[in-house]
Specification:
Helices cover 5% and strands 58% of the residues. The protein contains 1 helix and 9 strands. The strands form 2 sheets. It has a 7-stranded antiparallel sheet. A two-stranded antiparallel ribbon has the order 4-5. Strand 7 and strand 8 form a beta hairpin. The longest helix is centred in the middle third of the chain and has 6 residues. The termini are close together. The mean pLDDT is 93.
Length: 124
């Protein structure tokens, strides 16, 4: 598949071996920096940069995962495998941030992101 292909089946695997069944959108912030424009008194514009963790916002099916345990767990690695595009995303030394919210009507868990120290992407 080419660099213009997106979507399809995406699998999320933890280094523990657990598979998390994603649902909905997977958003990633992989730059490791946030930039902001700052205007000086003379009208010129500078840029400031702030280091940020690599992140992935996830929504997944509530299939009995112990949210208390995983929110408090040691750091782990997370792999997102895009089966239809051949792209794989690696988030290393990661942990979960946010507050898990279970929707008992739809079975979705929202409110969680992954924060990682490193990110790498391969294209198959």
């Amino acid at each position: 598949m080419g660099k213009k292909d997106f979507g399809g089946v995406i699998r999320m695997r933890l280094s523990t071996g657990d598979l998390i069944p994603l649902r909905g959108t997977l958003n990633m912030s992989t730059a490791g920096v946030s930039t902001e424009a700052v205007t000086n008194q003379d009208g010129s514009v500078d840029r400031t940069m702030t280091p940020t963790p690599r992140r992935a916002e996830i929504t997944f099916a509530d299939r009995g995962l112990d949210h208390d345990q995983i929110m408090k767990s040691d750091r782990f690695n997370v792999t997102f495998i895009e089966e239809n595009t051949g792209v794989t995303h690696y988030f290393t030394r990661a942990f979960l941030v946010g507050e898990p919210m279970k929707n008992r009507i739809t079975g979705e868990v929202t409110g969680i992101s992954i924060a990682a120290e490193a990110y790498r992407k391969t294209e198959g």
